[in-house]
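Technical note accompanying the year-one report. For the benefit of new consortium partners, we illustrate the data format agreed upon in the data management plan: each record pairs a sequence with a structure-token string. No post-processing was applied to the example shown here.
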Amino acid sequence: MNNVIEIDSLSKMYGKARGVKQLSLSVKGGEIFGFIGPNGAGKSTTIRTILGFLKPTSGSARIFGFDTVTQSPEIHRKVGYLPADVNFYDSMTAQELLDFSARLHRVEAAERIKQLSARLDLDLSKKFRSLSTGNKKKVGIIQAMLHDPELLILDEPTSGLDPLAQRTFFHLLTEERDRGCTVFFSSHVLSEVQLLCNRVAIIRDGELVTVEDLKEPSVAQYRLVHVRFARPTVLPEIPGVKSVEGDGTEYRFMIQGDVNRLLRMLADNTVDDVRIEEPPLEEVFMNYYTGGTTATKEC
């Protein structure tokens, strides 16, 4: 399927301060694409730049083939956007704000607003300033979806939502994908990525670390190996080990690739117990944030 988002060597600098640097990635039509990294990694800067709210220092981006600098009005007609911090007119009710948004998009959305607010359990009669953080986020979600956009760009969409609202929101995203909408969302909550996304990009300190297909073996082949030795043991450096923790005679390894290489090296020592399991996706990706450690340890 054709790419909906194409980012080519995009950089955004704030004077000497780094925003994002030489970022290149593409998002396919009809996929849910995760954009993850810790707070301050450059996720919001990237999103604001590709939407035309910020001018890039260098590089370019295109959405639906339109240049994000010179053709942003064409892009905005096709996109639903949810910022990380939702701020609207405080004196307007949620209903008034959403009706106003529908007029801006030139669509009749009364029934759509009614359905979405019912599913998210949002009281439309309350003024925006009186809403909780979670309910303000619900208003933002509905305004992003009410015109049935072809692309949803969502910046930290679940922050402030209670678990029940999060579950409903995840259902809404899968429904949007099933009708053909492309979803690009940023998050620092890795469990959301594992639940929803086809592919994920990892950003750290403003630079792209990797793009992973969550169905590919490169992600699935990570294993956690727990080993207990009969006596304190000095371990050499082991190929494929991304991290190792040791305390006394017990070790815990994160390994990528063939686990037999590790087992053969461990077999030179007296092993009391060994356990192999799949690690949570969060722990796999934390290796990208921290760089992972492979250590020789003596206990």
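Partners are asked to follow this layout when depositing records. The two ends are 53 Å apart (CA to CA).
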